[in-house]
Design goal:
- The complex is a heterodimer of chains A (379) and B (395).
- Chain A is an all-alpha fold.
- Chain A has 16 helices and no strands.
- The mean pLDDT of chain A is 87.
- Chain B is α+β, with helices and mostly antiparallel strands and 395 residues long.
- The radius of gyration of chain B is 29 Å and the shape is globular.
- Classes of the chains: A mainly alpha (379), B alpha+beta (395).
Chain lengths: 379, 395
C-alpha cells in the first residue's frame, strides 16, 4: 500500500524550493508602509493629510529658524528681513539673558555657582554614581549656603556684595527652581507625614495648609507674598524683594510635594510599619530609616514631574517685578535699537528652546527612572 | 467564673513614655506655636496698617470704581462700584475657563486617541504636539499667541475679511451682531421644545432597543428635529432674528460683537496647553483598558468606532475622570495668567486694579483667594458626582 502511494505520480518525492513571501508581507519598507500608513483607505487619506501638514510646519519652521534667518551683522540686517529669525539679536543679548544686570567682572561667580550646582545634580541623579548620600547632603545643606555666599557676596571674603536688584535672567530662573526644590522637599515630607499622622490637630493643620495652597493660583500666592508679607512683620524685618517670591515658591511647591510624598507613603505596605513598630523602633527612626527611603525612591518620577511644573511656574515671578529669564526676553525684545519685524518671534523661539530643553531633559530622566523602578519591582 | 476575671487595670499614670500623652503634648505645642504666630502677625499687621493708613473695612465695596473694562458680560461702566467690578472679574474668569475647558477636553480626547492610532504618522504628530506643548511654560505660550500672532495682525482699516461679515484685525475678531425682533422668543421656545422631544425620543429608542434589539435612527431624528422645528417657527413668525454686519467707520468698526485679542490669546493658550495634558490622561486611560475588551468587541462584530465609543471609552472614563478633574482645576487656576496679557479676569481687575486703587490689600486678597477656593471646591464636587455616575456598580 505505502509502496504504491509513494510511487504514485501525484505525490512528489522532491522538496519544493521555498518561495519568498509576497512583497506586502515581507519585512521591509513596503510592507511596513502598508501596515502602518496605508492599512485602510481612510488611514491612507489621513497619512497624506498629516504628511502634508507635518511637511508644511517643518518647512515654515526651518525656513524661519535656519534658511531665511539672519546669522551675522547688526540690527540693520534684521530690520530688512521679515522672513527669518534674527540670531545676532540673541547673540548680543545673551549675556543679559543669562545674568541680567549683574556686574560684568563678577559674573564668574555666577558661572562657578551654576557649575557646582550642575555637578552636584548630575552626581545626585546618576543612579550608578558612588556615595549619592554625600551628594544629597552637599546639595541640600551645603550648596544653598555656598551658592548664596558666592552669588550675593560677603565683604570679609573680599567678594563685593551684589544687590539683588541687579540679578536677572536665567540666574533668577535657576535660583527660583533650586530654592523651590531644596526647600519644598523637606517641608513637603513634614507636611505629608503630618497629613498621615494619627494626631487629629496636626492632621487638620496639614490638610488645611495643603488644600488651601493647592486650591489657589500661584499668582495670588505671589501677590500675597509681595503685598502682605511686609505688613506681617515689623519694618526692620521686611524681606528683600527677591526673598518674598522665594518664600512664596518654597511654600507653594511644598504643598504639591507633600501630595507626591503622601502617594509614596501610601504605597509602602502596612507590614513595613508594623514590623518596625514590633521591633520597638521609635516613630522618627521608623520614618527616617525604613519608610521614607522606600517611599521617596518610588516617587522620584513624580518628584521630577513636580519639579518640571515648578520650573515652568518660575516664569510667573515677573508679575512682582522680578526679571527672570522670560522677563529678560520680554525686556530685550522691545529694545528700540533692535526694532525689527521678527525680533519678538526670535526672542520667543529662543526662550521656547531653552525652556523646552530643560523640561524635556527632565521628563526623559523621569521616564527612564520610571522604567528602572518598574524593572526593580518585577525581579 | 467571676472570681477569675482579670484585675482591673491600675489607673494609668501620666508618663512622658506614654504615646498618647506625648501626642497630646505635641499637639498642644503646635497649637501654641500657631496661635503665637497668628497673634504676632495679626497684631503687627494691624499696627502696620494703622501706620500706613490702610483701611481695614469693606467700605470700598460700594464706592465708585472709576475705571473702564473692555470686556463685560454684565452691565458695567466707569461709574459702577468696586463690587460690580469684582463680579465682572468673576464672570470673565468663569467665562474663559468654561470655554477653555470645553476646547481643551475636545482637543485632548482627539490628540489622546490619535497618539494610539495604528497609523504611524498620525501617532507621531500627536506625540510631537504633546512633547512640544507640555515642555514650554504656559506664560511663554500666552505671550507668543498674544504678542507674536494676534498683535501683528493688520489694523482695522486693513482687516482680513472673512465671508459672512466677519473681520479679523489687531483689535480682535468682529462678528455680526444678532438683532432680536418681537417673536424671537417663539423661536427660543421652539428650540427648547425640540430639545425635550429629542431627549424623549432618545429614552424611547433606548427602551425599544432593550426590548427588541432594534436600533432607531436617534442621530438623524434628533438633528432633523433640532434644526427643522425651530426653522419652521422662525419662518412662520416672519424671520424675527436678523444679523447686522459690522461697518468700518473711521478707524474702527461700528456694530457687531467683538472678540478681543486678549480673550482669544488666553482661550487658545489655555486650550492648547491643557489639551496636551488631557491627551496624556486619555491615552493612559485607554491603554489601561484590557486589550481583551477590544478583541471581544471586534469578535462580536462591532465596528472600530463603535468599539471605541461603547466599550473602551466608558471603561477608560473611570480612570480618566480623577486626573481630568485636577487638570480642570489647574486650568481655572491658570486662567489667572490673564493678568500678563491684560485680559480682565478676577486677578487683573480685583487683585490688580482694585487693590492698587483702594490699597485694601488684606481684604482684596482674602476675597480673591476665597473665590478660587470656592470655584475649586465646586468643580471637585461636580466632578466627584460625575465620577460616581461612571464608577463600577458593584452588585
Amino acid at each position: 500500500m505505502s509502496d504504491q502511494s509513494m510511487r504514485s505520480p501525484v505525490v512528489s518525492s522532491a522538496l519544493i524550493p521555498a518561495m519568498a513571501p509576497p512583497a506586502d508581507v515581507r519585512p521591509g519598507p513596503v510592507s511596513w508602509m502598508k501596515k502602518n500608513l496605508f492599512s485602510t483607505p481612510s488611514s491612507g487619506a489621513l497619512t497624506i493629510c498629516f504628511v502634508l501638514l507635518a511637511a508644511w510646519l517643518l518647512h515654515h519652521f526651518l525656513s524661519f529658524a535656519i534658511f531665511n534667518a539672519v546669522w551675522s551683522g547688526g540690527h540693520e540686517a534684521c530690520r530688512t528681513n521679515s522672513q527669518g529669525a534674527c540670531w545676532p539679536f540673541i547673540a548680543e543679548k545673551l549675556d543679559y539673558l543669562r545674568y541680567g544686570a549683574y556686574p560684568v567682572f563678577e559674573r564668574w561667580r555666577v558661572d562657578l555657582a551654576q557649575a557646582i550646582g550642575a555637578i552636584l545634580i548630575v552626581w545626585l541623579l546618576w543612579t550608578k554614581a558612588p556615595r549619592r548620600k554625600v551628594a544629597a547632603l552637599l546639595f541640600f545643606l551645603v550648596y544653598p549656603v555656598a551658592a548664596f555666599v558666592l552669588v550675593r557676596g560677603v565683604a570679609w571674603l573680599h567678594l563685593p556684595v551684589i544687590d539683588t536688584t541687579l540679578w536677572g535672567g536665567l540666574l533668577i530662573t535657576l535660583l527660583m527652581s533650586i530654592v523651590g526644590i531644596v526647600f519644598s522637599l523637606p517641608i513637603g515630607v513634614i507636611l505629608a507625614l503630618g497629613r498621615r499622622s494619627e494626631l487629629p490637630f496636626v492632621k487638620t493643620v496639614c490638610v488645611t495648609f495643603i488644600e488651601v495652597v493647592r486650591g489657589v493660583p500661584f499668582i495670588t500666592v505671589l501677590f500675597m507674598a509681595n503685598f502682605m508679607m511686609p505688613l506681617f512683620v515689623p519694618d526692620y524685618l521686611t524681606p528683600d524683594r527677591l526673598l518674598r517670591p522665594l518664600i512664596a515658591i518654597a511654600l507653594f511647591s511644598s504643598a504639591y510635594m507633600a501630595e507626591v510624598v503622601r502617594a509614596g507613603l501610601q504605597a509602602i505596605p502596612k507590614g513595613q510599619y508594623e514590623a518596625a513598630k514590633a521591633l520597638g523602633i521609635s516613630y522618627f527612626d521608623m520614618m527616617r530609616l525604613i519608610v521614607l527611603p522606600q517611599a521617596l525612591t518610588i516617587v522620584i518620577p513624580s518628584i521630577v514631574s513636580t519639579f518640571i511644573g515648578l520650573f515652568k511656574d518660575t516664569t510667573l515671578v515677573a508679575i512682582v517685578g522680578i526679571a527672570d529669564f522670560l522677563k529678560a526676553v520680554e525686556t530685550a525684545r522691545v529694545d528700540p535699537n533692535w526694532a525689527g519685524p521678527t525680533i519678538s518671534s526670535t526672542g520667543y523661539l529662543f526662550a521656547g528652546l531653552v525652556y523646552w530643553g530643560f523640561c524635556f531633559g527632565m521628563s526623559r530622566y523621569s521616564q527612564s527612572m520610571e522604567r528602572q523602578l518598574a524593572r526593580g519591582h518585577k525581579s | 467564673m467571676s472570681h477569675l476575671s482579670l484585675p482591673a487595670p491600675s489607673r494609668r499614670s501620666l508618663s512622658l513614655h506614654d504615646t498618647k500623652v506625648r501626642g497630646v503634648l505635641y499637639q498642644l505645642l503646635l497649637a501654641g506655636c500657631l496661635l503665637a504666630l497668628a497673634l504676632g502677625i495679626g497684631m503687627q499687621t494691624a499696627s502696620n496698617m494703622r501706620v500706613r493708613g490702610i483701611p481695614l473695612s469693606f467700605d470700598f465695596w460700594n464706592e465708585s470704581a472709576g475705571f473702564d473694562i473692555n470686556q463685560t458680560l454684565i452691565p458695567y461702566d466707569a461709574l459702577s462700584t468696586y463690587g460690580q467690578a469684582f463680579w465682572v472679574g468673576v464672570v470673565n474668569t468663569l467665562y474663559v475657563s468654561v470655554l477653555a475647558i470645553l476646547f481643551a477636553t475636545l482637543l485632548g480626547f482627539v490628540i489622546g486617541v490619535a497618539r494610539l492610532s495604528p497609523n504611524w504618522i498620525v501617532s507621531k504628530v500627536a506625540t510631537a504636539y504633546v512633547e512640544l506643548v507640555r515642555n514650554v511654560p504656559l506664560l511663554l505660550q500666552l505671550l507668543f499667541w498674544y504678542n507674536a500672532v494676534l498683535k501683528p495682525l493688520p489694523s482695522p482699516k486693513a482687516s482680513i475679511a472673512i465671508p459672512g461679515g466677519i473681520y479679523l484685525n489687531n483689535r480682535g475678531l468682529i462678528i455680526p451682531e444678532i438683532h432680536l425682533h418681537p417673536g424671537a422668543g417663539l423661536v427660543g421656545l421652539a428650540f427648547v421644545a425640540a430639545i425635550s422631544c429629542c431627549v424623549a425620543f432618545w429614552f424611547r429608542a433606548r427602551s425599544v432597543q432593550r426590548r427588541t434589539g432594534e436600533q432607531l435612527p436617534v442621530l438623524l431624528v434628533s438633528l432633523a428635529t433640532l434644526i427643522g422645528f425651530p426653522l419652521v417657527v422662525f419662518l412662520a413668525a416672519g424671520e424675527p432674528v436678523s444679523f447686522v454686519a459690522p461697518q468700518l467707520r473711521g478707524f474702527n468698526f461700528q456694530g457687531g460683537h467683538q472678540l478681543y485679542p486678549e480673550f482669544a490669546a488666553l482661550l487658545i493658550g489655555l486650550s492648547v496647553y491643557t489639551g496636551s495634558y488631557i491627551a496624556e490622561i486619555v491615552r493612559g486611560g485607554i491603554q489601561a483598558v484590557p486589550k481583551g475588551q477590544t478583541e471581544a468587541a471586534y469578535a462580536l462584530g462591532l465596528a472600530p468606532g463603535k468599539t471605541l465609543r461603547l466599550i473602551v471609552v466608558p471603561q477608560a472614563l473611570r480612570i480618566i475622570i480623577p486626573p481630568l478633574t485636577s487638570q480642570y482645576l489647574n486650568l481655572i487656576k491658570n486662567s489667572s495668567l490673564a493678568v500678563f496679557i491684560g485680559y480682565p479676569d478676577l486677578v487683573q481687575i480685583f487683585a490688580g486694579t482694585v487693590l492698587n486703587q483702594t490699597g485694601a490689600a488684606v481684604q482684596v486678597m482674602a476675597i480673591t483667594l476665597s473665590v478660587y477656593l470656592v470655584i475649586s471646591l465646586a468643580t471637585s464636587l461636580a466632578m466627584n458626582a460625575c465620577n460616581r455616575h461612571f464608577a463600577i456598580v458593584e452588585r
